[in-house]
Amino acid sequence: MRHSYWLTPIVLSSVLILPGCDKGKDQPTPTSESAPSTATTKMSDSDLKKSIRAKLESDDAVKQANLSVKVDVNDNKATLSGTVVSQDLRSKAIDLAKSAQPGLIVEDKIDVKPAA
């Protein structure tokens, strides 16, 4: 009976530690061939500006607004300015610009002036 005192902490710690060692074994490890790249490629100012411009021109209503785009890749920031006829169009332009690059910050300097 005296020998079981030193054995008890070892058995208890094994019971608590060993189940944690099994985590992650059921999940396949990604390989470079099958795993998509999570690192985003940083575009130059001009490339990002072209990408945003292309996104804005893909929508006819936003294209007609002819918004101005300024880009600073180092700060991951784009500035949109100009005039649109509705708040919905303003929101759409901002969403389109944000979709050009993940995590892009879009500064909104778009004025809304409904058509007379």
Protein model, in words:
With 116 residues, the chain is of the alpha+beta class. It has a domain at 45-112: Histidine-containing Protein, Chain: A (2-Layer Sandwich). Helices cover 42% and strands 18% of the residues. The protein is built from four helices and three strands, in the order H-H-H-E-E-H-E. The protein has a three-stranded mixed sheet, covered by helices on one side. Helix 2 packs across helix 4 (87-98). The chain is elongated.
Give me the secondary-structure topology:
Layout: H1 4-21, H2 45-57, H3 60-65, E1 68-72, E2 77-84, H4 87-98, E3 105-112
Parallel strand pairs: 2-3
Antiparallel strand pairs: 1-2
Helix pairs in contact: 2-4
Based on secondary structure, the structural category is: alpha+beta
Strand content: 15-25%
Radius of gyration from the CA trace?
Answer: 27 Å
Q: H/E order of the elements? A: HHHEEHE
Known CATH architecture of one domain: 2-Layer Sandwich
CATH class of one domain: Alpha Beta
Number of helices: 4
What overall form do the CA principal axes indicate? elongated
Total beta strands: 3
- The rounded distance between the terminal residues' Cα atoms is 96 Å
Poorly predicted regions are 32-39
Q: Could you say what the CATH topology of one domain is called?
A: Histidine-containing Protein, Chain: A
Main sheet: strand order: 1-2-3
Question: Briefly, what is this?
Answer:
This protein has 116 residues and is of the alpha+beta class. The chain has helices spanning 4-21, 45-57, 60-65, 87-98, and strands at residues 68-72, 77-84, 105-112.
